[in-house]
Amino acid sequence: MVQPLDTRFPKPIQKLWTELHSDVVWLHGRWIIYRQLFGTSKERVDLLNESAGTVTWILQQLLLHDVQLALSKIGDPAGTGAKKNLTLRRLQADLSSAGEAVLTSKLEPLLEQFENSCVSLRDRRNKWIAHSDLATKLAARATPLSGPSRTEIEVALAALRGVMNCVELHYTDSQTAYEQFIMDEDGEHLLMTLARAKRYRDLVAEKKVPKDDLRRHYPRGV
């Protein structure tokens, strides 16, 4: 679905802002799902592992890698050679080109704070996730690579919100509660579905549901 442009922003940055805002919203959405699944309770992790341990491990790794990649990419330079990047630095550069000197200056310490919070994330992106640095990979065989901690991700996301909300507040007199993003079907929905499936297995074990009940209702499988 194409997002409408917000005309309260300067025309030269409207498309850029719309795309960045959407990226940041869904970055928080993926992190919310990660926290729901893996960062809330041992019981939830046990349920996931009991349901599909291998898939659970893969999903956990993919979400962690994805969030680190997204944070690293949004903190990349404004451009690479002649090509422009969809990044915070591109937003700052385009604001500067649009004559927004005061806002551009106000963003600088916030951008530096965000970039400092992503140093370790970017290092993992460059040596481990997006590329296969030989020395890093070989060292990992002897000493498993560490991180990221949930706190590390949370600090980076908070700094990212600081940058985004600084710009939004300047033009709209409002801010986005990215960390409160609500999705129709999120990690909670998956966990409840798995809990129902576990209860179904228990009922079969207790002989309260016929063993062939699932096969009779879904003869071709699910």
Can you characterise this structure?
With 222 residues, the chain is an all-alpha fold. The chain has two domains: 11-182; 184-222. Helices cover 68% and strands 2% of the residues. Strand 1 and strand 2 form a beta hairpin. It is elongated, with a radius of gyration of 22 Å.
Question: Topology, please?
Answer:
Elements: H1 14-38, H2 42-74, E1 79-80, E2 83-84, H3 88-97, H4 101-117, H5 119-129, H6 134-142, H7 150-172, H8 187-205, H9 213-217
Antiparallel strand pairs: 1-2
Summarize the structure.
The protein has nine helices and two strands; from the N terminus they run H-H-E-E-H-H-H-H-H-H-H.
Tags for this entry?
single chain; 222 residues; mainly alpha; two-stranded antiparallel sheet; 9 helices; 2 strands; 68% helix; elongated
Biggest β-sheet: strands ordered side by side in the sheet: 1-2
Structural class: mainly alpha
Number of extended strands: 2
Helix segment tally: 9
How many domain units?
2
